Known about the structure:
Blueprint: H1 3-34, H2 52-63, H3 67-80, H4 86-107, H5 112-140
Amino acid sequence: MTATKLLLLPLFVHLLLIFFVGYLTLKARFRSVKRGRTKLKDIAVGTQGWPDDVRALGNNFDNQFQVPMLWYAGCGLIVATGLVDWFAVALSWLFVSLRIAHSYVHCGSNDVPARMTLFLAGFTAVMVLWLWFGLRLFVIG
Length: 141
């Protein structure tokens, strides 16, 4: 498998995570309404009416469209400029692994210190990816 494919494969893994968390969120929301835990009028204009466990799933789903978008953009530009290397591949796999771990904690125990540590580690991985890309593009070649 080429380095480019190995860089892009974690993006597909992340898409599977998004679809899985989205499915869990929808299932939990439908179940909450069906069981009477949530009234439609309580969630018509915001998410505060959902029970905490359901809101945590929804928040995790929303999180998948924040920092990960910086990662998608970085990976896309790395591929477009032909600057794929093994360090970028390793950072990409590290990031998606941290996102999976973050989702596991967020949708499970919701241990805030553990979740924050995983978030910061993933954020750092994306920041390093962008710094490395900038160095490769403008300095190293």
